[in-house]
Amino acid sequence: MRYRKLCAAVILFLLFVVAGCRKEELARFNSRDAVYFYQGTYDTVNVYFPKADGTYGIQQTRFNSDTTRNLDTMVSIIGAAPATAQEVILEVRVMLQGNTSKSDRKFKLNIDQQTSTIPMDAITMKDEDCVVKAGTSVSYVPVRIKRLAQMAKQPMYITVKLAAVTNDLSVDYAYRTVSKTQKNIITRTYGLYDNVPKPGWWSSIGEYYFGPFSRAKYTFIKNYFGVTDDYIQSNDLSPYILIAWGQRFYCVLKALTDAGKPVMDYNDVTGVAFPMASGGSSKNSCIEDLQ
Questions:
Q1: φ/ψ (deg, to 5) at 242
Q2: pLDDT tens per residue, the chain (291 residues)?
């Protein structure tokens, strides 16, 4: 009798456990195949531009460089593109959540004209490029954008939003919120700024020896020392080289100013001209002959 009561108690307990598991299971997330924009610390945006030799160069941005907007905005600085490049190609990366397919699946990429500052007639995007190819989980949509004169003064923006066009590919991922300061992850804003890229080292040692960054200062330094963009952009430059450059830079500017021919700098946003100056740490006796 005692054995039967024990068995009944165990069975009753198991029923409670099973019922509890069923209730918990109802709260689980049931995923559907969906498209979305990736957002994370290592997010990247690539912009391609035609070069004189017929090949394409690339400007890759791996961080959010526009602090005045939400964190879903990525700004690419396209000043490295040659003057002959009348347009650039923005690579919009669309991710797939869920399972890959044996057939191509289309989605739609709409432009939000209310938040975009790049005019529609400067943008070319083809519907046939908006597709997740069979067996893949990512799509790279090329968006051609004209290189406008206004981009040299300030970043200009394009906001794109994902939409589904087939029943087997949704945008349900939109309901997942990253934070209150970010838009949902089916909307993304890209900026294009026709300035030269500031080298990574400039924000540290560069500020001390070369002062605030500007297009004119970057170009002067590159031309005076006879180096390429790839070289000056390298993160492997020795601090000793940069310190020597900074001291030489100070002496060159001082010599030209003393001769009544100061080198002019320009504000990248307003275009206002002013005498170029080095950083405070570059000051030295300038004993070396600069001729």
A1: -65, -40
A2: 555 555 555 455 555 545 555 444 333 334 568 888 877 666 788 999 998 888 998 888 765 544 444 556 788 888 878 878 999 999 999 988 888 888 888 999 999 999 999 999 999 999 999 999 999 999 999 999 999 999 988 889 999 999 877 666 777 654 444 444 444 578 889 999 888 878 889 988 999 999 999 988 998 998 899 988 778 888 788 999 999 999 999 999 999 999 999 999 988 777 799 999 999 999 998 976 544
